[in-house]
């Protein structure tokens, strides 16, 4: 079983759902609609990243199988708590699909806090905060969210995809979606995949946030 299938199986384990071992291909099997926030301290340093990831309805339906509820068709945060814990624990192996650099230096995150799942409009949304291992700042901070193997497709919301919470007033933010001028990266990524290297194929589908603070 591939690493991504192990991750999906881990997410479904709390709901008692098994996923068969099939070969992963270079296209997504799970779709996530995302929103994110960069959280700033009063001194202008970034202390963490807050995510809200809404899973596609098919995955949500699978994940909810076997969960007992007091009201049919309604799932409370308490009832979803075991599945939420499985989600965040399983994400650790993949660095939470969240990659940050400050002035070119890689930054690290601690394990998620304040995590929970909610259910609305036939979809599960995972909310969690990644505290920075050490608060960081820089003239240019870059944040990317993607699955290197492209088993999971992250698409950011059309409205308010990224927010800066508590950032200095003079900071400027730019958000680049995967289809915003990534033709060169796509060509390189496809060539690598054809050569048998798909370990970072998903990078060409990364969502990238750049924050510049004078």
Helices and strands in order, then pairings?
Blueprint: H1 3-13, E1 30-40, E2 46-55, H2 57-64, H3 77-91, E3 98-102, E4 105-107, E5 113-120, E6 123-136, E7 140-145, E8 152-156, E9 162-165, E10 172-176, H4 183-194, E11 207-212
Parallel strand pairs: 1-8, 1-9
Antiparallel strand pairs: 1-2, 2-6, 3-4, 3-7, 5-6, 7-11, 10-11
Helix pairs in contact: 1-3
Supply the number of helical segments. 4
Mean pLDDT: 82
Please trace the helix and strand order, writing H or E for each element.
HEEHHEEEEEEEEHE
Oligomer: single chain
Radius of gyration: 18 Å
**How does the major sheet shape up?**
6 strands, mixed
Strand percent estimate: 35-45%
Write down how many β-strands occur, each being a DSSP E stretch of 2 or more residues.
11
Which bin fits the share of residues in helices? 10-25%
Total domain modules: 1
**End-to-end distance, in Å?**
47 Å
Low-confidence spans: pLDDT under 50, at least 5 residues?
Answer: 1-6, 12-25, 181-198
* Coarse morphology: globular
Structural class: alpha+beta
